[in-house]
Give the backbone structure.
Amino acid sequence: MSARPIRRIAINTGGGDAPGLNAVIRAVVLAATQRGWEVYGIRKGYGGLLGDDVIVPLDRQAVRGITHLGGTILGTTNRGNPFEWAVEGPDGKLVAIDRSDEVVEAFRRHGLDALIAVGGDGSLQIACRLMQKGVPVVGVPKTIDNDLAVTEVTFGFQTAVQTATEALDKLHSTAESHERVFLVEVMGRHTGWIALEAGISGTCDVILIPEIPYDIDRVCEKIQARYAEGRRFAIVVVAEGARPRNGQVTLVEEAQPGHAARYGGIAERLAREIYEKTGRETRSLVLGHLQRGGSPIAYDRYIGLRFGGAAVRLVEAGAFGQMVALQNGEVVAVPIESAVAEIKRVDPNGDAVRTAREMGVSFGD
C-alpha cells in the first residue's frame, strides 16, 4: 500500500485523441470511487490547472455510458506542454515559456494526491518531468501510431487500422471502375504501423512507411507492372512521415514554439509525381482525423478499461513514475522513462514486411 493516504486523484488526457480514451476515464473513475477516493478531470491536458480551462469532478454519473464513445470527455490538446507554453511575445510572434511550476502549485492547491496521465510519447515525457518536480504520476499509454516502446499495443491503434482498412476496401471498386491509381495517406509521423497493417489487410499494391525510404521510380515500376498484367488500377497507402531516399518528409507546417511540426501532404505530392512519370490518372486521399474518430472497436475498449483499472491499482500501491503496459497479454507496470526512451519502429526485416513482399507488395525500395 502507499505510504501516503490517497483521498483525491486527477486524470488528464493529452496529445491527439484516440478511440478508447473514455473507456480509460470510466475505469479510473469507477475503480477509484470504489476505494472511496474523489476523482477530478483536468480539462485540455494541463490547461485546467493553468486557467486555460477548468478541472471537473468525476463521479459514477459523469462516466455513465461513455465506454463506446470516441474522443475524450475531458478534451485534449497537443499544444499544452507546460514546459513550453506558447504565448504571444512583444513582437506578436509566439514564444515558449516554462509554466511547469504553476502546474505543480495548482496541483497542490487543489489537494490532489496523484495524477494519472494518459498520453503518448510527448505527454508521457511531460509526465516524467513533472515527476521530477514532485508530482506523483502514473502513466497510461495512448497513441494510435502504436509507437510506444515496452508495450505490445496502445489502445486506439486497432480502431485506426480498422478505419483505414475499411477506407481502402471502398476505394478498390472506384479505382478499378475508373482505372485509376489511388494514394491514401494515413497517420504515422515516425513509424508505419497503421500503413503496414492496413495496407496488408486492405490488399494494397504499394506500402510506404518511414522505416523504408522509397524510390519513386520503384513505386512507378510496380504500378506500371500491374497495368501491364491487365490489373488497370493500383492502391498505394503511405504514412504521413514516409520520405524518399536522400529526401525529407513533407510538412504542412513547420515547428512552432509549444508544438511540433505538422506532417502531411505526401499523398498529394506522390500523386503528381506518379502522374508525371506514368501518365496514369492518379488521385490522392488523406484520411486524417477520421482515423482518430468514431466509436472504439471492442478490443480498444477492453484494453482501455484494463489500463484504467491497472493505473488505479498502481496509485493505490504508491508505484509512481510507472506506466501500465501490455506484455504477453498481461497488464504490467514499467518505468515511464523506459517507455519514452525510444520509439517502437517497424522492423524492415520483420515477418509482416516479409509476408507483404512475398505477396507482391512493393515498399518502394
About this structure: The chain has ten helices and 15 strands.
